[in-house]
Amino acid sequence: MSKTVLIIDDEPAIREMIAIALEMADFNVLEAGNAQQGHALIVDEKPDMILLDWMLPGTSGIELAHRLKREETTREIPIILLTAKGEEDNKIQGLESGADDYITKPFSPRELVARLKAVLRRTTPKGIEETVEVMGLALDPASHRVTAHGQALDIGPTEYRLLQFFMTHQERAYTRTQLLDQVWGGNVYVEERTVDVHIRRLRKALGDDHQHLVQTVRGTGYRFSIRA
Questions:
Q1: 42 and 103 co-located in one domain
Q2: At what angle do helices 109-123 and 12-24 cross, to 10 degrees?
Q3: 14, 45, 13, 50: which is closest to 35 by C-alpha?
Q4: For the segment 59-106, what is each residue's pLDDT rounded down to a tens digit?
């Protein structure tokens, strides 16, 4: 599946130049002209990467980067800052804001695409593009299959997304609201008890050998853990 990249830049000509280069490299492209539009798209669309201009009208790119890295649902989205500022202290400030890379204008489209691919390779955890395995339970994103000790499991699409999130975010408790945001998306409105229904289905699909990995955390929600 093609990765989705959000370009946040207030100059339409630059957005168009970047968009053409990314589409030729088989990326899906979203565009925003300011931080507010960009943040709304991030919440609704959950892009795989953000290309963020330093100098934006109103809220700056640096301020938006700080905000995204503070928020639970967006902190793991990689960011490349685009800026005309070339001094070393500005580069350090950009990286300290949480950006994963920094590219100075003017830049060639080929360089941008190469840097973008490098950041995606570096920041993509196992279970998103590579198989992740826990105690004989294996999730293969390439084939969209889940197996237990080599035997295929019958698992629904929502349960698959839940398991994929759990297996790539192990040993941490998540509330039902956080799971709704991460698995269903911030622009989908469903009740919290929907999570409980799909957790039950997931445990049933995992069977006796692995259902214990999806644990209820009283007063909080759920976690995926190999510990009792």
A1: yes
A2: 70
A3: 50
A4: 989 899 999 988 878 888 999 988 876 655 666 676 777 788 888 888
Considering 91, 123, 155, which residue would you say is the last residue of a domain?
A: 123
Question: Does residue 144 share a domain with residue 40?
Answer: no
Report the alpha-carbon distance of residue 6 to residue 78 in Å, rounded. 11
Question: Which of the residue ranges 55-64, 167-176, 188-197, 198-207 has the most confident prediction, judged by mean pLDDT?
Answer: 198-207
- The residue type of 45 is E
Whichever domain contains 189, its CATH number is: 1.10.10.10
At 44, the pLDDT band (50, 70, 90 cuts) reads confident
Residues of the domain holding 205:
132-224
CATH of the domain at 46: 3.40.50.2300
- What sign does the dihedral 185-186-187-190 (CA atoms) show? positive
Amino acid at 95: L
**Host H or E run for residue 29:** strand 28-32
d(Cα 123, Cα 100) in Å, to the nearest integer? Answer: 9
Q: Tokens at residue 50, please? A: 């953000």
For the chain, what is the domain count?
Answer: 2
